[in-house]
Amino acid sequence: QLQLVESGGGLVQPGGSLRLSCAASGFTLDGYVIGWFRQAPGKEREGVACVTWRGDATIQADAVKGRFTISRDNVKKTVTLQMNSLKPEDTAVYYCSVREFGTKGPKDYWGKGTLVTVSL
Q: What are the angstrom distances between the C-alpha of 62 and each of 1, 66, 68?
């Protein structure tokens, strides 16, 4: 069973930086997409960025493009979200998510989340 654990959240001032990490375990298949979502208070969950476990293809949401960078380490089985030039609207619980492509179709896994607060 695939499991995800996020870390790195905290309080940061506008313009500051944070690095989030997601540790994945329990891989049994080769095909995965792993990424970050976030949910602000009173808002719907939205996608932030994702990367393929193989091939290193990445995509970022327009709201974070140029400020956030996603990367993965296939040896450590971790993904990192480097967040720069943070804005108050980036405040949210950030979730790591994996989509596993199995023989019966995709299966999604979610971490418990880590809180990022951008405030003076």
A: 32, 9, 10
Rounded to whole angstroms, the maximal C-alpha distance in the chain is: 48
In this structure, what are the phi and psi dihedrals at residue 85, rounded to the nearest 5 degrees?
A: 50, 50
Q: What band does 29 get if pLDDT is binned at 50, 70 and 90?
A: low
**Mean pLDDT of the region 106-117:** 95
**pLDDT value for 2:** 84
Q: Which amino acid is at 2?
A: L
The CA dihedral of 34, 36, 39, 45, to the nearest 10 degrees, is -40
Backbone angles phi, psi at 4, to 5 degrees: -130, 135
Residue type for 104, please? Answer: K
List the structure tokens of 87. 């804005």
Instruction: Report the 10 Å Cβ neighbour count for 9.
Output: 17
At residue 6, the pLDDT reads 97
